[in-house]
Amino acid sequence: MIASASTRGAVVTLGGNGAPPNGPVRQLWLAGPDARPRCPGLFGGDAPLIASGPDTAAASLAVTVEADGGSPQPTSQAIVQLALERGVFGE
Predict the structure, then answer these.
(1) 56: alpha, beta or left, given left = phi > 0 and alpha = psi -120 to 50?
(2) Could you list the residue range(s) of the whole structural domain that residue 67 is in?
(3) The whole model's pTM is what?
(4) How do residues 14-61 score in pLDDT, each as one tens digit?
């Protein structure tokens, strides 16, 4: 992940996991200590995901495998999870 505080955006790449089986997608989540996870987007194959306007209170980033089209909330165990330093999105 490369984040820019000045543009409040990030580019997130995901590699080394192979393609998910037919149908499921990889979904990115940002979560804060007191908030539901928020989805800034779905990964399209190996293409980087560009997330704009991430929540400045986000404390972690996670990727889950979800049904085709994504999910309104995570339904599976994270395949990747990163703790974010305070201020990574401009707070």
Answers:
(1) alpha
(2) 2-14+23-83
(3) 0.82
(4) 876 666 667 789 999 988 877 788 898 998 777 888 887 666 677 888
